[in-house]
Amino acid sequence: MLDFIGVSLGFTCVSAVFGVNKKIRSTKKDGYNTCVFDTMISNYEGIIDCINNDFEGFCDPNNLELININTDYAIYPHWEQPLNEQWVYNKKYKFLFNHESPGHANLYLTQQWESIDYYIKNNFENFIIKYNKRINNFRNYINSGKFIIFIINKYDNNVYELERTLFLKYPKLNFKIITVICNIRDTEIFHRNILRMMKFENNEIENIFTKRATICNNEYNSDKNNKFSKNEELLLYYKNSVLTKSHINQHLNVVKYYSEKCSSVLELGLTVYTIGITASVILGMEQNNYPNNLFTGIFEISLGQELQYLKNITNINMNILKEREINIKVEDLQNHDMLIINSWFTYKHVKYNLENFGKIINNYIIICATTIHEHEDHPLYISGEYTPVRDFSEYPYDNKKGLGEAIKEFLEDHTEWVLYERHYNNYGMTILKKMQ
Questions:
Q1: Residue-wise pLDDT tens for the chain (436 aa)?
Q2: Where are the CATH 3.40.50.150 domain residues in the chain?
């Protein structure tokens, strides 16, 4: 049984088929409940508006009508015969419903509808019943507490605004989006022609298919004071970190998830390149609304301007130290709910951090890079290619190697801690939990 739920977001049924074929999405036979975007023709802006509006107007009969679809001049040469049909159309979101349209692909015969006009008669009564159920299925999956993998087929892989919409609309949801890139003929040309059949103005057509501009750093920095609240700025910073390839970017949603459960987090890092973790922690704690939330960051090499920027856009109390962990007196720190170890990926260093800082941790410990450095220390730290050559002899432990051994010994010596989660993707991540 899948430990996540795959949900299609359109633009056509291609995304649903892709999900099933790649075993990302289950089938009806396996208990999957068909969702709202599975078998229709949508568009990117319409999907975003629909989610923002919580599907308001989706099933309103005042927004539903039949429109003529004639593809005699559409550039779709692999069709043996052009279409000349009437399709159900939602004029609010510009969605098309070919699977519920009279006569399309003889579905009324193969699916044994009561009549060819089954979904349009009585002012779209059966259509409304069907799609209200599919909307509720979508909502139920969103509220299930499970990790959601959204699948969308699109003519490019820019889903930035969709991701932002999902984060703002469903702040507790943990998810990722998989983009299936479609042939331009299957998306832009076909859909542009359909829209022209509806006699929209050309500029409106162009707006629908213009690529949504990614808010890159220079645009974001110049516009941020006018466009976004502080919370949205933090969200955008987090999303930029998620989308920027690193040893940790695929795990930032996990860091955010556990930070939501904590009122205090201690991060052990090296330098500003790990700022994505800090942003994930801050965003998670911003969303839990606990009073007196505290973030403590100990960075050995450098801090950078981004940390000051984060301090300016959050109400979380941030205590930042530039110091080596071995020079920190743990008794000078208060207890924290969670510890994140993301500094030197060597046996001695992780062993020291677990033994020393684990004393003041109440609930969780996250250790980064536990797959790639499970059995061997990070070679760049030892050779001097990344930092001055060091042997970490200042740490009072045997010359063992690998983070896996350090974690194993910690769990053996501290039975109140258990291995809670293990993530093997990216560079790996291990989560320990303290049993109360």
A1: 567 899 999 888 888 888 898 888 888 888 899 999 999 988 888 999 999 999 999 999 999 999 887 654 444 444 445 667 889 999 999 899 999 999 888 899 999 999 999 999 999 999 999 999 999 999 999 999 999 999 998 766 677 678 878 888 888 888 888 888 765 444 444 454 454 444 343 344 334 333 322 322 333 333 334 344 566 677 777 877 777 777 888 888 889 989 999 999 999 987 655 578 998 999 999 888 888 999 999 987 766 667 777 888 888 999 988 888 888 899 999 999 999 999 888 888 899 999 999 999 999 999 999 998 888 877 655 455 545 555 567 777 777 888 999 999 999 999 999 999 888 888 899 999 999 7
A2: 237-434
Fold classified for 237-434: Rossmann fold (3.40.50)
Long-range contacts of 142-147 (CB under 8 A, 24+ apart): 142/170, 142/173, 144/5, 146/3, 146/4, 146/5, 147/3, 147/4, 147/5, 147/174, 147/175
| Tokens linked to 262 | 């904590």
